[in-house]
Amino acid sequence: MTAFFEVHKDLPREGPGEAADVHWALKRAALRPDAIVCDAGCGPGDDIQALLRHLPAGHLLAVDLHAPFVAQAEARFENEPRVDARVGDMAQLDTQPDAPFDLIWCAGALYFLGVSEGLGVFRKALKENGYVAFSEPAFLTDEPSQAARSFWDGYEPSSEAELRAKVEAAGFKVLGIKTVSDAAWENYYQPMEARIAKLRAGANAELSKALDENQAEAESWRKVKGETGYLLVLAQAV
């Protein structure tokens, strides 16, 4: 795990995403100007600036379990009083002093809890009729190849219909679903590949293995990106 975090140290983001994803979701959510938003599993905080654009008088709490990611987010927004970054467990958002939230944003991290379990946790941390926006692994074809299945290393993605059903069963109304773009994936992989290249010289066996694994992940995604990826979901508690 130490080698993994050495590969991922100081990357701008820890998963696929782009500002357009945030704008797509928040333009469809009827948030008050003073809304309280949580970025759950925030990583180094690359979505925070886009979230702030929709919170002219609001406050954002960024939460992640990995302290170095939180420190990176804090450094990026040290002069922004509307942002508070904390080490914390997104499985316990309802215990945060800022809860309940008007919106929980969760880019590429809900699958750590599972869709149904995670949305149950998030619902307890939302205000009445609050919103959740999250991206989740999904198959983009009815007959994904074994390579597309293997890409997720044992995690079983949903189809769009299955994902919608899980969200509704958790007590939410789906307001929109969109596919996360190839550009959003490259926003994650290209900086990571640049870091891999930088670390190659002098890497020990453990680090070399981690470099190879992360490079292989990027290359595998490019081969199966027509079959699988992330779906971004905006939903409202009902």
Automatic annotation (TrEMBL):
Instruction: Tell me which UniProt keywords the record has, alphabetically.
Output: Methyltransferase, Transferase
Biological processes per GO annotation: methylation
**Which GO molecular function annotations are given, in alphabetical order?**
methyltransferase activity
Q: Which domain of life is it from?
A: Bacteria
Q: Where is the Methyltransferase domain?
A: 37-130
Protein known as: Methyltransferase domain-containing protein
What organism is the protein native to? Answer: Actibacterium lipolyticum
Q: What is the lineage of its organism?
A: Bacteria, Pseudomonadati, Pseudomonadota, Alphaproteobacteria, Rhodobacterales
